[in-house]
Amino acid sequence: MAAGLAAMQFYFVLILFASLCHWLLCIELDELDKDEHSGLLHLIRRIRLERDSDTIVIYGSEPCVFHELLPQLGLPTVLLSQGSSWEDWSFSSESLLLICNSNAEQEQNRRTLLKLQQARRLVYLEAGKKPTEVCEAYFEREQVNVAMVDAVGNLYSCRCFQQKNYVQLALNLSDSYQTESTALVNLNFDFDKESDSNSHYDSIYVEQFANMQGSPIRTEPDQVGPRAFIYKNPSTGEYEIKGFVSNLITSFAERLNATVKLRDDFGLGQKIHMKNIIQRVLLDQLDIAATLKSTVDFENFDYLSYPYIHSSYCFMIPVPPRVDFKEIYTLIVHPLVTGVLIVLFLIFSLLLIYSQELNWRRFSLIEMLLNDRCMRGLLGHAFPMPAHPSRYLKGICMLVCFASIMTTTMYESCLQAYFTHPPHEMILRSFEDILTSRYKIAVERGEAIGYLLRNFSLTTTNVHHVHVLDDWQELIRLRETFNDSFIYPVTEVRWFSLKEQQKYFREPVFYYSQDVCMKHFLLLSLPLRRHLPYRQLFEQHILAMQEFGISQFWLRNSFNEMIRLKVALRKDYSHPEEPEDQLYVRDLTNILIFYLAAHLLACICFVLELCWARIFGIK
């Protein structure tokens, strides 16, 4: 019994000793592992301090040093062991890319490339790989936020626009780990200055395009004023671009210390179709196009910037002609006013009949409808009064005189004003009014198919009201010369300059209709190539120009800028009719017709009276 108890105690002590040894061994292994990867782990934490990221993307197959750090990072992770993603990248989170070796990232998905273009990358350099080669490879793919670390612990960061395309930030990561607690407290990163090779706390990633050292920004204006046009600077002899869209690009280039590069074979004043510019953008031959494109024509913003300006897309319609003099009399005799006057005439007739004897003995239908005194009184003429009129009759006659003064004054003032300055005809307020008018809609064939057929119900009976042009430059020419035989579709931003130009006309030729529109709201953006590395800076520049009102200033001052640069002229395209200083018989046609009709009515009434007297024997 005692021997068994001693054996159990021996086994218990042995097990306790083995457990203690295992615990000490685990502590030692953990310390060894911590010493091996602590510097790399601190580097990733330092990168996250510069710009926080909540998703880790690892390119490369296992085993990799970054895979061993995942438990300690504790972040959502995407593993791309084959070097590319098969599905489009749809994450909206900020991602940090960890690349196992310089050749591990072989992304082929274009949508993923666009989403991860600005993401920060940390590449683990294999032995014998030079940082210069890695930076060149990434710069060719226009991915600039790249840092590298090798097995020894050297840290490198790629730099654009300098002779040596990288800098060395830390000699050894183990030294960085020894000061980890101090670094996490004292890190203050300046994103706009270059890093010092001997500093442990300068930014690993800097804004590469803050100073482009005169690098070109390729652009091309459509030369459709006033948004973008080319002119020759007389002081320098060089060609420059102007316009409220071009000014955005040139100011952005000045902000980044870049230069604006135009095509060598451009034609001064030669307008370029939107399709040609978009095609050059799709082929990456242009960085930023100096034109505007609606967002409804694209499925996404891959080839468009942040919306620069909003507008409507409506019709500019010729100002209606003035009413002919012969129509003025008909115009002032409004049916509603005429009806009110007839009702007043009948009321005054009844009151005059009743006020004579304060009864209805003298009432008759003829006396009510053709009351001589009431008719002459409303027309402002004199009429006979009884020898001793009652106070009721006097009061009614005063009302008739007051009504005659108001009526004759109103009609006389309207008649004189309209003859002095005839009003315009009714404006067109709907698409149906356009189809019933004498005007045709001048439109390019592409717009006729894309907008008119989709937004308006054109049929074989009214399609003749649309004038389809295959030459879009002919459409621009007709619109810019204010040919009032047609109605033109135009954006509101373009109408600003056309309205400003009409201030130099003797009278306006067109007006912008807010009632007849193909699109009441459009977002207009600048086309730019898909993988533009400074896209984010350009969009921030757009927001800054909008916030300070500079974009609106450029837009409203666009026509005056064209005049100052002698790109446009203050030419009067209006053709106002010379006012006539005298009236002709043809101008009184409607009045004479009304006069003859009234005489004919009087003759008919006279004949009826004669017949009535003969039938009833009244002498």
UniProtKB/TrEMBL annotation:
The chain crosses the membrane at residues 328-354, 592-613. Residues 1-26 form the signal peptide. It is found in: Cell membrane. The keyword Methyltransferase does not apply. It is a multi-pass membrane protein. GO terms for cellular component: plasma membrane. Keywords: Cell membrane, Glycoprotein, Membrane, Receptor, Signal, Transmembrane, Transmembrane helix. InterPro entries: Insect_Ionotropic_Sensory_Rcpt (IPR052192). PANTHER family: IONOTROPIC RECEPTOR 20A-RELATED. This is Ionotropic glutamate receptor C-terminal domain-containing protein.
